[in-house]
Amino acid sequence: MALISPRARWLIGVLLGVVLSACHHPVTSIENDAYVWQRQWNAPVREAVLRSADLVSHWRVLAAQLDAKGHWVDVAYDRATLAKAGKPVILVVRIDGQLSEWHADEVIAHVLALRAQADGWRVSGIEIDHDCATSKLTAYTSLLMRLRQALGDATSLSITALPTWIGSPSLGPLLAQVDDVVLQVHAVQSPTAGLFDPALAKVWVDRFAAIAPHGFHVALPAYGTRVSWDAQGRPVAIASETSTLDGADDGHELAATPQQVATLLSAWRHEPPKGWRGVAWFRLPTSQDARAWSPGTWRAVVEGRALEPALSVQWRPNPNTGSLDVVLRNDSEFDTELPGRIALPASCTLADGANGYMLDTRTHALTLAQSGWLRGQGERIIGWVRCPMDSVPGAVTLNARP
């Protein structure tokens, strides 16, 4: 057998490396900004900021809101905590989309006052969050042009943008006024359409990337919400930071699960849209926020780690009712998407669902009616059955959403 010289081996190795690198898309390093949207900076919020600072490029901090009645509400954000976290801060001013009219002079004056109050520390920019009607984009552009001039070159100006703006001839002039755009892809449709659709989000981002004059961020959700409707189908109440499954009969849980978002984000990391700078996460999870992902799960998604499910179902005697509780357990450290169907033993002639599940009598199974996730190391009673204890299996391992 002929021997291969060291130089030939080196050349073969180089060529093999070139071939292999051409077969794989590089994983893109992206910015991860986080919205701190909480109005009350309590201990869990301060703790979350400090513990998550290593993940975050910029904090996008709610500083003030012009509400639907035209009243200003300022937020007492914690400057000391933000300074200790050591990352640049973008102050966000929200203009309620239901506001029929706003006055440019008043908005500009309030923004400049907020910047002046923050002078001397790490505020790098101002963001305007306004769900502007597409028909009013020209007036909005005028406001941004004047605000851009008032802020000067030392402070960046960014805005949030809606997918409904794509295709409007007014969008180009509006985008020319700002340094950065955060495209919203969650909670931008009627609540009846759900909170987040990954396939639709990808379509919106691809369309926006084709026309954006500069780089942009995408706002991705790390939360769920409960929406209640009136008899005419209009949303009358939205609960975003209170406990899930709070007993209300007239609401529906909407959720963006970690697995949904992680899958989309992985695709973008390997084939990034043109001009995509990164993610602006909404909202920063805290240990107290029951409708947001757990902080550990959010960290895993940001870092691109695998979210391996470890769900099981157990049957536990309930001494108060004489029936067996159907208990869903999550033995992983990550929040896991709720399974869509739990088959019941044939011996269980009586049963019903609970906490987001309903009984399907045709298939003799509990089926998911309220989308969501189960916290890592958590459990939930999802129904009950009546049958002999010796006729049901032990713990049954499940995959997410069978």
From TrEMBL:
Pfam families according to UniProt: DUF3142
PROSITE patterns in alphabetical order: PROKAR_LIPOPROTEIN (PS51257)
Superkingdom of this protein's organism: Bacteria
Entries under SUPFAM superfamilies matching the protein: (Trans)glycosidases
Protein name listed in UniProt: DUF3142 domain-containing protein
Species of provenance: Dyella soli
